[in-house]
Amino acid sequence: xxxxxxxxxxxxxxxxxxxxxxxxxxxxxxxxxxxxxxxxxxxxxxxxxxxxxxxxxxxxxxxxxxxxxxxxxxxxxxxxxxxxxxxxxxxxxxxxxxxxxxxxxxxxxxxxxxxxxxxxxxxxxxxxxxxxxxxxxxxxxxxxxxxxxxxxxxxxxxxxxxxxxxxxxxxxxxxxxxxxxxxxxxxxxxxxxxxxxxxxxxxxxxxxxxxxxxxxxxxxxxxxxxxxxxxxxxxxxxxxxxxxxxxxxxxxxx
Length: 254
Fold this sequence. Notes:
Elements: E1 7-11, H1 16-25, E2 31-36, H2 39-48, E3 55-60, H3 66-80, E4 85-88, H4 103-131, E5 135-139, H5 152-172, E6 178-184, E7 187-188, E8 203-204, H6 205-218, E9 222-225, H7 227-238, H8 241-253
Parallel strand pairs: 1-2, 1-4, 2-3, 4-5, 5-6, 6-9, 7-8
Helix pairs in contact: 1-6, 3-4, 4-5
């Protein structure tokens, strides 16, 4: 796949993996349409890349708000006319103990991590289906394999995202639309910086961005990394429930 003159949408572009993706894509002659709730951070990022070959446009957007998504898409399509690649990267995560149980965190998590995909894909589909091409790359997580203690809302939202993208990949194949699921392990971002637990194989965001772009260029259906974490989560996912419960309870007591 070539990136020359491609119109690329990146949600959640202000920090973390999204920010790192922008910096990598900026080295190509393409058009980048950046979205985030904090547009001032996007403008700062754009200014820092003004000597790069990419054309960069910034838009304020809350992916969990359908009205915001509809308006942002209208603004982008008025400039771009068509979209080639959409990297739906926005994500949030909240650590929570049972003693602090709060359903509003579930709503915030699912609105961003799952409904953000649904709302953006709803806008993208008509154009993609009409042009018989396009790439939808949704960011899920290797945390989709089990319900990890303290991260139930996050894991559930990412499991929903992975299953949803899988279904879309099959359905949209006949229209020439590629759907890619991106599953990172632990990546150093503002979201993971607040984690109090050990994060094995923690990866810098710029390295994660390079892996993602390489996978996109190769046309991979699933981009998952790093390998040790991929293997580890697959093993954990295959554990019998009684064994997983035993190990999880043992870990919680430590």
